[in-house]
Structure formats: C-alpha cells, structure tokens
Amino acid sequence: MIISVAAHSEEPSREIAEKARSFVRKVSPCNPTLLLGGYWGLMKTVVDEAIKQGLTVVLILPIERENIDLPAQVIPIRSGCEFRCRSVILVRSGDVLVSLGGGVGTEIEIMLAYAMGKPIYAITETGLSTDHFARAFPEYIDDRRVVKIRYFNDPGEVAEEICRGNMKSVETRFG
Amino acid sequence: MIISVAAHSEEPSREIAEKARSFVRKVSPCNPTLLLGGYWGLMKTVVDEAIKQGLTVVLILPIERENIDLPAQVIPIRSGCEFRCRSVILVRSGDVLVSLGGGVGTEIEIMLAYAMGKPIYAITETGLSTDHFARAFPEYIDDRRVVKIRYFNDPGEVAEEICRGNMKSVETRFG
Amino acid sequence: MIISVAAHSEEPSREIAEKARSFVRKVSPCNPTLLLGGYWGLMKTVVDEAIKQGLTVVLILPIERENIDLPAQVIPIRSGCEFRCRSVILVRSGDVLVSLGGGVGTEIEIMLAYAMGKPIYAITETGLSTDHFARAFPEYIDDRRVVKIRYFNDPGEVAEEICRGNMKSVETRFG
Amino acid sequence: MIISVAAHSEEPSREIAEKARSFVRKVSPCNPTLLLGGYWGLMKTVVDEAIKQGLTVVLILPIERENIDLPAQVIPIRSGCEFRCRSVILVRSGDVLVSLGGGVGTEIEIMLAYAMGKPIYAITETGLSTDHFARAFPEYIDDRRVVKIRYFNDPGEVAEEICRGNMKSVETRFG
C-alpha cells in the first residue's frame, strides 16, 4: 500500500509534530510505502520517523528544491516541475491521501485527491489552516460528492482505518 | 494581458452562461488573451463568446481530452498531462485568474493561483459549488495571507477592475 | 495550422539566422501559428521575424527561464517544468515539427516528434550538430519506421511543402 | 545510488534478455535502486530479475499505461503525463543512466541524460536500433561535449564501473 502524505512545508509546533510521528508509528505495522513532497517542515518530521520505523519512503521533489540534502534511506524522485505540479504526481501515485495538517499546499493536495477519487483521511485540531478547511468542507468538496473526506482528531484512528485496508478509489472523468 | 479563466466543466445554467458571456464582452475592450482549460461545459460558453468578440484564445488541453473538435480560431496547447496538471500550466501562465464558477476543478484553480501569488477575481452567486468556497474563504486561503481573493457578483465589475490593470502578482517560494 | 519550431538555443551564425528568417517569410502566406520553446538563440531570430510577418507566436517556456523579457506580441505559456519537459509540450502541440538546426535540444525535439508520429521537416547544412544527426538518421530513427524525416537544404522548399498541407500525423502507442 | 534504466518497450530476444538480466545480477552487490519506465518489454525482464535479486525498484509510469498489473514488490509512481514526459522524470531522477538497448524511446532517454549532464552507460550489440545510435554518436551528441557516452558490449563491465562509483554529473544550463 502506498500512502501519499500531505503535510505542512513549515516548521511544526511540538504538538503537531508529535501527532504526525504518532501516525507514522501506528501505521508502521501494516508496512506502507510513504510518499511525501519534500524533506522540510512537517514533511521532514514524518520522513525522519518513517526512517526510524524502517518504512520505505519516496519523495516527489519539486524542481525548486530538488537538490536538498536527504537521508540515504529515502528515494528521491525529481519531478522536474514546480511545487503544485509535483503535488499532482504525489497525490496520483498514492492509494490514499493522509493530511497531517498544513496550509494552502496541503489543502490543494486534499482537493487533488478528491478530484481523483482517492480516499482521504485528514487530521484536525492541528492549529493549522487545514482546521478551517475541515470546517468548510465537513464531507464533500463539491456537489459531485466524489469521496467523503474522513476527519479524525486521533492519528491512531487514521492508522487503524488505513491498515484495515477497506477503502477504495472512485474513478473520475471530469476536469 | 493574459487572463486565465477557471470555469465549470459541466453544462451551465442559462443564468451563469449569461454572466460568463457578459464578462467576456465587458473585458474585450482591453483586448486580453484568454487561457482556458478546454472546450466543454462553461468553458465552451466563454470560448465561443471570446471568438465572437475577436479575442485570442489559447486552450491548455488535458491529455484525457486533447483530441476534441475545436473552432479554427483557438490555439490548442496539448499539455500531455492529466486534468489537474494542465490546470497548473493554465494558472501559472496567466497574469490573473478569473473564476466564473464551478466545482472542485475550479476551486483547485483558485487555490493554485493563490499559492502562486496571482491576483484572483471570482464571480459569486452562480449556484455552483464555488459559492460555498467563497463563503469558506472570504479573503485568504491560509494564514500566509498571500493574496486576497476578490469576489464580485457583477461580472462587469471584474472586467472593469482587470482593464484598469493595477493588480500585481506576489512572488511565492513555499510548497 | 500549428508549426512547432525546433531551433538552437545559442547565438546563430549570420547564415543560419538568414535561413531561419527565410523559412518564416516563406511560410507566412499560409498563416500558421508558430510555437517555440523560448526567446533566445536562434529561437529569438525566428520569433522576431514571425512578429514582423504578423504571425501568431506562442512560446512554451521552461521554468528555468520563464521570466525573460518578451515582445508584447507573443503569447507566453509557462510550462512550470524543466527544459526537456517543455519540449514535450512544444512538440505534442504542433501539427508538424520544423527543425531549423541546433544541438541536443533540437535533436531531442526531432526524436520526440518521431515518437509521437508527427511530420518532421529538417533544415540541413546549418553547420550545427543537427547536420550530423541528419547523416545518422537519413530516413527513420528506429526500426518501427514511424515517420520518414524529410530533410531540405532550402528553407523555401520546407515552407512550400508545409503550405501545401498534405502531411499527416501517424498515431503511435508505444513508449 | 539510483540507476535509471532505459530499455526496450517491446519483447526482447533471448540474447538481449539474458544480457539485461546479467547486468542486474552483476550490479546487485552494490545495492542500487532501479528506476524504470514500465513493466513491459525488456523493462519487465529487468524488473523481474531485480525483484529476484532483492533490489528496490521504482517505476515511473506514463498515464497511457498507469493501470497495468504490477508485482507487489515494485513502487509505482504515476507521472500523470505521457510517455516522453515520464522519461524526463525517469532520467532526471537517476544518478546515472544505463541503456540496455531499445528503439526511439531508449534513444530519447540517452539524449535526455546527455542534456542533463548525467553519466551514461550503454550496452551495444543488442540487435536493436540503439546499436545504430551508438555508431552515430560514438562519444558526444552535440558540439557542447557535455558527457561522453560510454559503450560496452559486456553488461558486467558496466556493473563494475557503476559499482566503482566514481562517475559524476555535470551541471547543464542550456535548453
């Protein structure tokens, strides 16, 4: 299973960093591959914990930051394209999207996943802009009702749901 | 000036079609080039009116529908990539983004424009999902406060603002 | 008709610049839209002449040079992706590819056109690396024999052939 | 170390399949990650052998064939873009490119690697179109002389050279 992880590109608070690490620890037993869009901000927190847990980590890097230093264990894919374009590849490649909280970049990734019909799990009460997004779109993002976003305060519950493995993508054909 | 136009990929109501045509007519005097992402749904309405007004129209086509029949006057660019990836090129290429109303695809284009620091003008009271988006994000999309989205009920006012030409992009470096 | 033009990214000699301008002048009567990948080197020569002739010019810009100064008449599309990726969009969007001579970038564009089944017209005796390419691949690029590259010393003949308009793309499905 | 592998998209002969498997076996001791562009033709031969050797394999899939069945051990990245565009990502992401022989797709990948300044190792005497390419470009692809392509008949020698690990990319800035 491949999990695309949307996470803030800026330094996380201690609380949200801990929530993110907790998600990684709790999802580790079902041994997913994690896809992330970089190695900075909250994404770095996730990657570091995933390495500690021995998970396979693939980074889809935007051209703006494709030459950053990386831990030897991660597999960098250089998208050759800009921040939002790399998010398209990131989201499209996952079986599911998990949002750990962030700003507009993370919100875009949630919307991309919705438009592509991917199952979406989003952590709330992060203190980040995605909390507002969650209130704005408690279920669906548009009137097509493609997939219902599932919000959780507890990252352990997201891990549990994902490891149970009974979520499915919906085929979409609009755009 | 290049205006990226975000508009619904599905058949518009008579009212919203008229609002869209009105925008095109009123913006024509300053002779912008219009960029759109296809020739179906509300996008088709806009393209047809733009041709009638003699405007240059460029379409950034997604690979899923790159072979549709087109009027001879438009210039098709085949992005070679999927729906959302073509939206990245569409938004990035404009000096400004105008949303005429739509679903998640249009909402993604607004968010892309915000993340790229482009001026955004959005028509409200369309009866489409973007009306809800407008209520959810009355000003900014995240706490970076990159650009303030400007909402209008009257498409003529948007045209006027754009023709006045004093909007500016903000450089962004996050993602 | 849309002509994708592959041309050197470096300063041309007087001879090759003249050959390129001659092609533009002679193809002008059938009023094609020209697509190019930038506004530097031999590409700039072509764009300047095309503007003089009143042709519509669209540039597919790579992210590395998306902010260069451009004449007001051209329509810039910001691909958001790197040099070679923008070449894919450039070639895919044309009805035909014309090579006016260049280095590896131009050679890649010829190969992309071949792989996509586009008609290819290439100017030889330019003094550039594509002269060697022409000798290496006098007809086909691989044993699939997708499209036969047509080589010309005289740019006027290429213009004539193109304006006659009886070339067709071949559908390809490999890769 | 990440090795981008360019290989024919069509069924290989027994000889070339054996050469490809031999390369994989001999490069395994230095434990590279292999990147390929699909799971068909000669690429499938390489992937199957790499799995047998326990190597990590990442596939950069073109949108035309992103839904093919894959072995559980490989990590599929859905580029969301067409055949040649996925080749750009494939080549850009590798520390080095190895060509095991093929047609125009493989030749394009060699040219992309050259344009990006990547070290290139190419197997000759494959009976495929790349043999002709090797004769056409025995050293450099254009007069910039970016990187010297290194040709080998023996796949074991390529593996040895790569495992020795003293090849370096050259930074390029043209296009």
Automatic annotation (TrEMBL), chains A, B, C, D:
Keyword DNA repair applies: no
Domain of life according to the entry: Archaea
InterPro entries for this protein: LDcluster4 (IPR041164)
Protein name, UniProt field: LOG family protein
Top EC group: hydrolase
Keywords carried by this UniProt record: Glycosidase, Hydrolase
A molecular function GO annotation: hydrolase activity, acting on glycosyl bonds
Gene3D superfamilies, alphabetized: 3.40.50.450
EC number of the protein: 3.2.2.-
